[in-house]
Specification:
Number of strands: 3
CATH topology of the largest domain: Single alpha-helices involved in coiled-coils or other helix-helix interfaces
Largest sheet: 3 strands, antiparallel
Number of domains: 2
Helix content: 40-55%
């Protein structure tokens, strides 16, 4: 049977809340228990697929697109700002040695005459 729209919206809202909670727990526990933090990240991905909810951008950018590792800058990934061709952030995962690029805009300062 098809679920009502309000019921779907409630399920998706609960899924988003749960993803936020799991992300906070993973970021707090990463230093002491990195395996448990990785398990929380895996649960976030499973929840998003099961409930068909997008992972929020700030969480998605902390997960490697290739191997699914929880990325912590300076510990298991390197973050660099690049301006070649177009300005972008390059994140290199130390687990799978792959690079992820995220473009960003540069605010131009207008000169006063």
């Amino acid at each position: 049977m098809a679920r009502r729209k309000s019921e779907r919206a409630l399920i998706r809202d609960i899924a988003r809340q749960r993803m936020e909670i799991l992300y906070e727990m993973a970021s707090k526990l990463f230093e002491e228990l990195p395996e448990l933090a990785q398990r929380y990240i895996d649960l976030i991905r499973k929840i998003s697929m099961k409930c068909r909810v997008r992972i929020p951008r700030h969480i998605k950018r902390r997960i490697c697109k290739h191997c699914g590792t929880f990325l912590v800058p300076g510990v298991n990934c390197r973050v660099r700002l690049r301006t070649n061709r177009y300005p972008h952030i390059t994140i290199t995962c130390f687990n799978c040695k792959r690079q992820i690029r995220y473009p960003y805009k540069v605010n131009r300062v207008k000169k006063r005459s």
